[in-house]
Amino acid sequence: MHENDPLWKLRHALAGLALALLASVLIAAMAGAFIGDLVGDSYGARVTAYGLLLLYVVVGAGVLFAKVARHETRPLSVSRLGLWVVSLWLWPALLLSRGRGGDSGNDPDRPGGGGPSSTA
User: Which of 37, 66, 81, 117 is most buried as measured by Cβ atoms within 10 A of its Cβ?
Assistant: First the structure.
């Protein structure tokens, strides 16, 4: 029934990324308030810090989904969700490693390849 549904094939990645994005929005709110208080102790500073962190996380969600979603086949667990959250905040490292090593850094069919779907 679901063999031809592309969203069904991506269900683990979609669930992981959606929950990681939700957690990251909360983390960005707390970090934005902290950074805003350190920098300017004003509402404008907190809003600016939160907005920039939120933009970073949303862009990261798009990059992460595009780069690793097709390889995510394991069911979602607490440890895998933690890996998605960490990956969402460290997404520039994914781009840097992809630039140096080509497309092999996230290929589960190659030794050492994988990303979120190969660990935890």
Answer: 117
- Residue 72 in tokens: 């995510």
pLDDT (tens place) for every residue of the chain, 120 residues total: 667 787 888 888 899 999 999 999 999 999 988 888 888 778 888 888 999 999 999 999 999 998 888 888 888 899 999 999 999 999 999 888 866 655 544 554 444 445 555 444
Predicted TM-score (pTM) of the model is 0.73
Q: In terms of residue numbers, what domain contains 41? A: 6-118
Residues 6+ apart with CB under 8 A from 49: 31, 32, 33, 35, 36, 39
Residue 1 in any domain: the answer is no
Count of structural domains, the chain: 1
Q: Is the dihedral of CA 119, 106, 117, 115 positive or negative?
A: positive
